[in-house]
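Pilot study result, target chain (72 residues):
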Amino acid sequence: MKKVLITLAIIAVAGAFASCSKTCQCKTFVAGTVTSEYEVDLDDIDNENVKKCKDLNTVVEVAGLKAGNECK
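Predicted structure:
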């Protein structure tokens, strides 16, 4: 029983730290070249559909070259 409680405590702490990161590192690509890098705070986004960094991605690839925004 003690091992189960310790395991649950570790999972809870790990989950708490994982959910704290609400800042996304984003890059803008034009013709496959990074033209800018910036940060986005998810708390500042008013769109309820944006919950994760990847929800901000708009990258398309044409002829092997990226264009748009990519966030992680």
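One observation from the pilot: Strands lie at 23-30, 33-41, 60-62, 65-71. A full batch analysis is planned for the follow-on phase.
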